[in-house]
Recover the amino acids of this structure.
């Protein structure tokens, strides 16, 4: 077959009854993203593909909305009734040209890797159909590959297999590359005379063979790729395999994972060398870690960039933020979206920073809330300082110059600006702008009451 015009059809219309969910099976989350997104991401890297389509049905509105928002080039085709995998492919015939080839993928077989798809494409010459099989110790539940004189003659589904066929360990992964002419000629001949009364795409193999066509199987090197996710047990198995792949990728790039199985990775991490990650950390979205970054246990890092040699102390949460070089964050710090922590800065225990810029080498060491603020370089923010950014209706900004010292337990009522080099006395409530290089404080004078007696409890 010719693969110069290649269509990909992903079958994703099934309900996934065994998943016991209100959502379509292909939207179940793995590595914090819908399982169908994994396949669509893999396809992005295969240049031979001319067009790809997802066949949707059960939970269609949600499937359509999520796919079109994230993969706008993917065609979406409805399968009105879920009558089986052959019927699903038949609903895509209108976008399949008369010549070229079609790669059929199952929406629930997401561990399939790019190099395996390439291997299948390389086997296309002289074949009408190339399928991906796998040899499993426990083949239960899968379609079995039946061979005669070593060549593939048909596939029998578990539910239709006799006891001898059930012993066969070579299974159908569901991945098939089919010549478009052979597909169009034979798919119409498939009937539903089987245990599930479904139109099985797998029946196309015996039909092609009967017409003298050529069918071959590429045997998956890695049996993980065969895993079809039909229930939550298989979902957990797939997650485990996926996480292992991600962790190994990181370790190969020079990251030390202190306890690899306790690192959870969703999304894409880019790393420098000599990064150390302690147990129970979670990474989500796009994360970049510079050389020598140290992430202590229990931290959650999402869509963030962390500069060289910065140290994230235990139990810190960083989300949509940029951390510079040589910073120290935490323990128990929360850096919220739109925050930038500049080089050498220190954000300490129980400090929350939101939509703020913290200047070079500035310190917010203890128990503070810094929101909607711009803080200059070499600033020291005392323990318990609060930027009062919200008046009950609107948010306002606080601006603090370079070299400012804010005494402990001060409230800076925004909008407010503190000039360079100013010192704010402890316990102040600052409601007006403060000039540069001066001492400002608000503080009721100390009163002494003589001869005062503490209340006493009646005995
Ligand atoms: C299928 C294969 C089986 C293979 C296994 C691999 C058939 C008949 N059987 O079985 O040989 O070993 O996958 O995991 O092909 N779907 C539709 N429309 C339908 C029915 C299914 O779009 O009418 C979609 C499902 O959403 C799913 C995929 O096709 O993503 C496979 O369907 P599923 O019910 O999981 O098939 P299996 O029983 O796993
Ligand atoms: Mg399945």
């Amino acid at each position: 077959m010719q693969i110069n015009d290649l269509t990909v059809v992903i079958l994703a219309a099934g309900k996934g009854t065994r998943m016991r969910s209100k959502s379509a099976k292909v939207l179940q989350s793995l590595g914090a993203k819908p399982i169908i997104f994994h396949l669509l991401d893999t396809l992005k890297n295969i240049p031979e593909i001319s067009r790809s389509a997802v066949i949707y049905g059960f939970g269609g509105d949600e499937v359509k909305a999520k796919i079109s928002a994230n993969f706008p080039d993917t065609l979406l085709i409805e399968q009105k009734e879920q009558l089986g995998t052959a019927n699903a492919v038949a609903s895509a015939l209108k976008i399949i040209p008369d010549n070229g080839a079609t790669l059929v993928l199952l929406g629930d077989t997401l561990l399939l890797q790019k190099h395996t798809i390439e291997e299948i494409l390389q086997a296309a010459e002289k074949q009408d159909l190339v399928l991906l099989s796998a040899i499993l110790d426990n083949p239960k539940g899968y379609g079995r590959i039946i061979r005669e004189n070593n060549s593939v003659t048909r596939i029998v589904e578990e539910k239709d297999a006799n006891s001898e066929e059930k012993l066969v360990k070579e299974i159908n992964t569901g991945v098939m590359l089919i010549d478009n002419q052979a597909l169009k000629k034979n798919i119409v001949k498939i009937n539903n005379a089987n245990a599930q009364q479904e139109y099985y795409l797998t029946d196309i193999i015996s039909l092609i063979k009967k017409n003298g066509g050529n069918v071959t199987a590429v045997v998956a090197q890695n049996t993980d790729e065969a895993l079809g996710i039909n229930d939550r047990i298989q979902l957990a198995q797939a997650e485990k395999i996926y996480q292992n792949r991600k962790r190994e990728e990181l370790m190969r790039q020079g990251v030390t994972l202190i306890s690899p199985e306790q690192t959870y990775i969703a999304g894409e991490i880019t790393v420098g060398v000599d990064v150390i990650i302690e147990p129970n950390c979670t990474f989500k979205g796009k994360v970049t870690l510079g050389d020598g970054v140290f992430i202590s246990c229990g931290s959650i890092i999402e869509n963030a960039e962390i500069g060289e040699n910065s140290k994230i102390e235990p139990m810190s949460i960083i989300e949509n933020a940029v951390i510079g070089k040589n910073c120290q964050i935490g323990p128990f710090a929360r850096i919220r979206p739109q925050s930038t922590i500049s080089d050498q800065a220190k954000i300490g225990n129980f400090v929350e920073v939101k939509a703020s810029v913290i200047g070079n080498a500035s310190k917010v060491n203890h128990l503070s809330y810094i929101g909607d603020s711009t803080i200059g370089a070499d600033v020291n923010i005392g323990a318990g300082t609060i930027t009062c950014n919200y008046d009950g209706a609107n948010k306002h900004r606080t601006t603090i110059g370079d070299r400012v010292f804010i005494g402990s337990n001060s409230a800076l009522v925004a909008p407010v600006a503190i000039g360079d080099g100013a010192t704010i006395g402890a316990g102040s409530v600052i409601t007006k702008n403060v000039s540069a290089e001066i001492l400002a404080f608000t503080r009721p004078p100390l009163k002494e009451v003589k001869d005062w007696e503490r209340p006493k409890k009646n005995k």
Summary: The domain at 6-226 is CATH 3.90.550.10 (Spore Coat Polysaccharide Biosynthesis Protein SpsA; Chain A). The chain has eight helices and 38 strands. Residues 206 and 212 are 10 Å apart (CA to CA). The longest strand covers residues 170-179.
